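call fold(seq) -> C-alpha coordinates
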Amino acid sequence: METINLIIEALSFTFIQRALIVGTLIALCCAFLGCFLVLRKLSMIGDGLAHVSFATAALALLLGASPLLVSIPLVAMASFAILALSERSQMHGDAAIGLVSSFAIAIGVLIASLAQGFNVDLMSFLFGSILVISHADVMISLVLAVIIIGAVIFFYNQLFAVTYDEDFAHVSGLNTRLVTYLTAMLTAMTIALGIRVVGTMLISSLIIFPTVTALQIARGFKSTIAVAAIISVTCVVLGVFASYVFNLPTGATIVLLNAAMFALFATLRKLGAIGG
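ret:
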Protein backbone atom coordinates (compact mmCIF):
# COMPACT_ATOMS: atom_id res chain seq x y z
CA MET A 1 0.00 0.00 0.00
CA GLU A 2 2.86 2.34 0.84
CA THR A 3 4.46 1.65 -2.56
CA ILE A 4 1.20 2.51 -4.34
CA ASN A 5 0.96 5.76 -2.40
CA LEU A 6 4.52 6.63 -3.39
CA ILE A 7 3.74 5.95 -7.05
CA ILE A 8 0.66 8.18 -6.85
CA GLU A 9 2.78 10.82 -5.15
CA ALA A 10 5.42 10.51 -7.88
CA LEU A 11 2.84 11.21 -10.57
CA SER A 12 2.11 14.58 -8.98
CA PHE A 13 5.64 15.81 -9.65
CA THR A 14 6.36 17.55 -12.94
CA PHE A 15 9.84 16.04 -13.31
CA ILE A 16 8.40 12.52 -13.04
CA GLN A 17 5.75 13.32 -15.64
CA ARG A 18 8.44 14.64 -17.98
CA ALA A 19 10.62 11.60 -17.35
CA LEU A 20 7.73 9.26 -18.20
CA ILE A 21 6.91 11.14 -21.42
CA VAL A 22 10.50 11.44 -22.64
CA GLY A 23 11.36 7.93 -21.44
CA THR A 24 8.43 6.42 -23.33
CA LEU A 25 9.42 8.27 -26.50
CA ILE A 26 13.02 7.07 -26.14
CA ALA A 27 11.86 3.50 -25.51
CA LEU A 28 9.75 3.49 -28.68
CA CYS A 29 12.57 4.94 -30.80
CA CYS A 30 15.07 2.42 -29.44
CA ALA A 31 12.70 -0.49 -30.04
CA PHE A 32 11.88 0.56 -33.61
CA LEU A 33 15.53 1.02 -34.55
CA GLY A 34 16.98 -1.76 -32.41
CA CYS A 35 15.52 -4.54 -34.55
CA PHE A 36 17.26 -3.27 -37.67
CA LEU A 37 20.56 -2.57 -35.88
CA VAL A 38 20.76 -5.90 -34.03
CA LEU A 39 19.83 -8.03 -37.05
CA ARG A 40 22.29 -6.13 -39.25
CA LYS A 41 24.99 -6.57 -36.59
CA LEU A 42 25.27 -2.80 -36.25
CA SER A 43 24.25 -2.60 -32.61
CA MET A 44 27.76 -1.60 -31.53
CA ILE A 45 27.47 1.62 -33.54
CA GLY A 46 24.99 2.68 -30.89
CA ASP A 47 27.58 2.09 -28.20
CA GLY A 48 30.19 4.04 -30.15
CA LEU A 49 27.83 6.98 -30.70
CA ALA A 50 26.92 6.93 -27.02
CA HIS A 51 30.56 7.62 -26.23
CA VAL A 52 30.54 10.45 -28.76
CA SER A 53 27.49 11.96 -27.04
CA PHE A 54 29.59 12.31 -23.87
CA ALA A 55 31.91 14.71 -25.67
CA THR A 56 29.00 16.63 -27.20
CA ALA A 57 27.32 16.99 -23.79
CA ALA A 58 30.58 18.35 -22.33
CA LEU A 59 30.90 20.80 -25.22
CA ALA A 60 27.29 21.95 -24.81
CA LEU A 61 27.78 22.59 -21.10
CA LEU A 62 30.98 24.51 -21.83
CA LEU A 63 29.15 26.70 -24.35
CA GLY A 64 26.04 27.04 -22.20
CA ALA A 65 23.92 25.61 -25.01
CA SER A 66 21.22 22.94 -25.08
CA PRO A 67 22.97 19.52 -24.94
CA LEU A 68 20.24 18.01 -27.10
CA LEU A 69 20.61 20.56 -29.89
CA VAL A 70 24.40 20.33 -29.82
CA SER A 71 24.47 16.53 -29.66
CA ILE A 72 22.19 15.76 -32.60
CA PRO A 73 24.32 17.25 -35.43
CA LEU A 74 27.65 16.25 -33.90
CA VAL A 75 26.62 12.66 -33.14
CA ALA A 76 25.15 12.43 -36.66
CA MET A 77 28.48 13.61 -38.10
CA ALA A 78 30.26 10.98 -36.00
CA SER A 79 27.98 8.25 -37.36
CA PHE A 80 28.79 9.32 -40.92
CA ALA A 81 32.48 9.38 -40.05
CA ILE A 82 32.29 5.79 -38.80
CA LEU A 83 30.60 4.66 -42.01
CA ALA A 84 33.05 6.63 -44.18
CA LEU A 85 36.05 5.09 -42.40
CA SER A 86 34.56 1.62 -42.87
CA GLU A 87 34.00 2.19 -46.58
CA ARG A 88 37.07 4.12 -47.67
CA SER A 89 39.90 3.20 -45.31
CA GLN A 90 39.69 -0.58 -45.62
CA MET A 91 38.87 -0.61 -41.92
CA HIS A 92 36.45 -3.02 -40.29
CA GLY A 93 33.34 -1.49 -38.76
CA ASP A 94 34.27 -2.35 -35.18
CA ALA A 95 37.68 -0.71 -35.61
CA ALA A 96 36.08 2.44 -37.03
CA ILE A 97 33.65 2.56 -34.11
CA GLY A 98 36.49 2.14 -31.62
CA LEU A 99 38.55 4.82 -33.32
CA VAL A 100 35.81 7.46 -33.34
CA SER A 101 34.42 6.66 -29.89
CA SER A 102 37.83 6.67 -28.16
CA PHE A 103 38.71 9.97 -29.84
CA ALA A 104 35.39 11.46 -28.67
CA ILE A 105 35.90 10.23 -25.10
CA ALA A 106 39.35 11.83 -25.05
CA ILE A 107 37.88 15.13 -26.27
CA GLY A 108 35.13 14.94 -23.62
CA VAL A 109 37.59 14.28 -20.81
CA LEU A 110 39.81 17.13 -22.03
CA ILE A 111 36.89 19.57 -22.07
CA ALA A 112 35.77 18.43 -18.60
CA SER A 113 39.27 18.91 -17.19
CA LEU A 114 39.77 22.36 -18.74
CA ALA A 115 36.37 23.77 -17.79
CA GLN A 116 35.60 23.93 -14.10
CA GLY A 117 32.14 24.09 -12.56
CA PHE A 118 30.00 21.70 -14.59
CA ASN A 119 31.45 18.30 -13.74
CA VAL A 120 28.40 17.47 -11.61
CA ASP A 121 26.10 18.30 -14.53
CA LEU A 122 28.25 16.18 -16.82
CA MET A 123 27.82 13.19 -14.50
CA SER A 124 24.06 13.44 -15.00
CA PHE A 125 24.61 13.00 -18.73
CA LEU A 126 26.93 10.05 -18.18
CA PHE A 127 24.45 7.98 -16.20
CA GLY A 128 21.15 9.77 -16.73
CA SER A 129 19.05 11.94 -14.47
CA ILE A 130 15.33 12.59 -14.60
CA LEU A 131 15.98 15.94 -12.90
CA VAL A 132 17.66 17.45 -15.98
CA ILE A 133 14.62 17.12 -18.26
CA SER A 134 13.09 20.50 -19.02
CA HIS A 135 9.84 21.45 -20.75
CA ALA A 136 11.84 22.36 -23.85
CA ASP A 137 13.45 18.91 -23.81
CA VAL A 138 9.99 17.32 -23.78
CA MET A 139 8.93 19.33 -26.82
CA ILE A 140 12.15 18.59 -28.72
CA SER A 141 11.92 14.91 -27.77
CA LEU A 142 8.36 14.72 -29.05
CA VAL A 143 9.34 16.22 -32.40
CA LEU A 144 12.40 13.96 -32.75
CA ALA A 145 10.44 10.84 -31.78
CA VAL A 146 7.80 11.60 -34.41
CA ILE A 147 10.56 12.07 -37.02
CA ILE A 148 12.41 8.87 -36.05
CA ILE A 149 9.36 6.60 -35.79
CA GLY A 150 7.79 8.21 -38.86
CA ALA A 151 10.96 7.62 -40.88
CA VAL A 152 11.14 3.97 -39.81
CA ILE A 153 7.51 3.43 -40.82
CA PHE A 154 7.87 5.35 -44.11
CA PHE A 155 11.09 3.59 -45.13
CA TYR A 156 10.15 0.25 -43.56
CA ASN A 157 10.31 -1.75 -46.81
CA GLN A 158 13.76 -0.42 -47.68
CA LEU A 159 15.07 -0.93 -44.15
CA PHE A 160 13.66 -4.46 -44.06
CA ALA A 161 15.10 -5.34 -47.47
CA VAL A 162 18.61 -4.26 -46.46
CA THR A 163 18.29 -5.99 -43.09
CA TYR A 164 17.07 -9.26 -44.62
CA ASP A 165 19.60 -9.48 -47.46
CA GLU A 166 21.76 -6.44 -48.23
CA ASP A 167 23.41 -7.96 -51.31
CA PHE A 168 20.09 -8.94 -52.87
CA ALA A 169 18.64 -5.49 -52.08
CA HIS A 170 21.64 -3.88 -53.82
CA VAL A 171 21.30 -6.09 -56.89
CA SER A 172 17.59 -5.27 -56.99
CA GLY A 173 18.43 -1.61 -57.46
CA LEU A 174 18.00 -0.34 -53.91
CA ASN A 175 20.50 2.27 -52.77
CA THR A 176 21.74 0.28 -49.78
CA ARG A 177 24.39 2.88 -48.93
CA LEU A 178 21.73 5.56 -48.55
CA VAL A 179 19.63 3.25 -46.37
CA THR A 180 22.65 2.53 -44.17
CA TYR A 181 23.34 6.25 -43.75
CA LEU A 182 19.67 6.84 -42.95
CA THR A 183 19.88 4.15 -40.27
CA ALA A 184 23.00 5.77 -38.83
CA MET A 185 21.32 9.19 -38.81
CA LEU A 186 18.23 7.88 -37.01
CA THR A 187 20.46 6.05 -34.52
CA ALA A 188 22.38 9.26 -33.83
CA MET A 189 19.13 11.11 -33.14
CA THR A 190 17.97 8.33 -30.81
CA ILE A 191 21.26 8.34 -28.91
CA ALA A 192 21.13 12.11 -28.49
CA LEU A 193 17.56 11.81 -27.28
CA GLY A 194 18.29 8.99 -24.84
CA ILE A 195 21.13 10.60 -22.89
CA ARG A 196 18.59 12.69 -20.97
CA VAL A 197 17.08 9.76 -19.07
CA VAL A 198 19.41 6.75 -19.42
CA GLY A 199 22.76 8.49 -19.88
CA THR A 200 25.53 8.15 -22.44
CA MET A 201 27.01 5.05 -20.81
CA LEU A 202 23.74 3.09 -20.80
CA ILE A 203 21.70 4.22 -23.81
CA SER A 204 23.10 1.57 -26.17
CA SER A 205 21.77 -1.17 -23.90
CA LEU A 206 18.27 0.26 -24.33
CA ILE A 207 18.66 -0.32 -28.06
CA ILE A 208 19.94 -3.89 -27.70
CA PHE A 209 18.08 -5.44 -24.75
CA PRO A 210 14.44 -5.03 -25.89
CA THR A 211 15.25 -6.44 -29.33
CA VAL A 212 17.18 -9.49 -28.15
CA THR A 213 14.43 -10.14 -25.60
CA ALA A 214 11.72 -9.85 -28.25
CA LEU A 215 13.63 -12.28 -30.47
CA GLN A 216 13.15 -14.93 -27.78
CA ILE A 217 9.37 -14.93 -28.18
CA ALA A 218 8.31 -13.10 -31.33
CA ARG A 219 7.45 -14.72 -34.64
CA GLY A 220 8.17 -12.45 -37.58
CA PHE A 221 9.85 -9.10 -38.04
CA LYS A 222 6.93 -6.80 -37.33
CA SER A 223 5.94 -8.76 -34.25
CA THR A 224 9.53 -8.46 -33.00
CA ILE A 225 9.32 -4.67 -33.28
CA ALA A 226 5.94 -4.66 -31.50
CA VAL A 227 7.13 -6.89 -28.65
CA ALA A 228 10.38 -4.92 -28.31
CA ALA A 229 8.36 -1.70 -28.05
CA ILE A 230 6.13 -3.15 -25.31
CA ILE A 231 9.12 -4.48 -23.35
CA SER A 232 11.07 -1.25 -23.74
CA VAL A 233 8.22 1.03 -22.64
CA THR A 234 7.36 -1.27 -19.72
CA CYS A 235 10.94 -1.29 -18.43
CA VAL A 236 11.24 2.49 -18.74
CA VAL A 237 7.98 3.19 -16.89
CA LEU A 238 8.76 0.66 -14.15
CA GLY A 239 12.32 1.96 -13.95
CA VAL A 240 11.22 5.56 -13.44
CA PHE A 241 8.81 4.58 -10.66
CA ALA A 242 11.28 2.17 -9.04
CA SER A 243 14.01 4.82 -9.04
CA TYR A 244 11.68 7.20 -7.20
CA VAL A 245 10.26 4.69 -4.73
CA PHE A 246 13.58 3.06 -3.82
CA ASN A 247 15.84 6.09 -4.45
CA LEU A 248 17.84 4.38 -7.20
CA PRO A 249 19.60 5.82 -10.27
CA THR A 250 17.03 5.90 -13.07
CA GLY A 251 19.22 4.84 -16.00
CA ALA A 252 20.78 1.88 -14.21
CA THR A 253 17.39 0.74 -12.91
CA ILE A 254 15.88 0.77 -16.42
CA VAL A 255 18.79 -1.22 -17.85
CA LEU A 256 18.69 -3.78 -15.02
CA LEU A 257 14.97 -4.29 -15.59
CA ASN A 258 15.70 -4.90 -19.28
CA ALA A 259 18.40 -7.39 -18.32
CA ALA A 260 16.02 -9.18 -15.95
CA MET A 261 13.37 -9.33 -18.69
CA PHE A 262 15.86 -10.84 -21.12
CA ALA A 263 17.03 -13.41 -18.55
CA LEU A 264 13.42 -14.38 -17.83
CA PHE A 265 12.38 -14.93 -21.44
CA ALA A 266 15.67 -16.57 -22.39
CA THR A 267 15.22 -19.03 -19.53
CA LEU A 268 11.60 -19.73 -20.45
CA ARG A 269 12.59 -20.38 -24.05
CA LYS A 270 15.38 -22.71 -23.00
CA LEU A 271 12.93 -24.64 -20.85
CA GLY A 272 10.54 -24.90 -23.77
CA ALA A 273 7.82 -22.82 -22.14
CA ILE A 274 7.86 -20.35 -25.05
CA GLY A 275 9.13 -20.43 -28.58
CA GLY A 276 10.24 -17.76 -31.02
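The chain has 13 helices and no strands.
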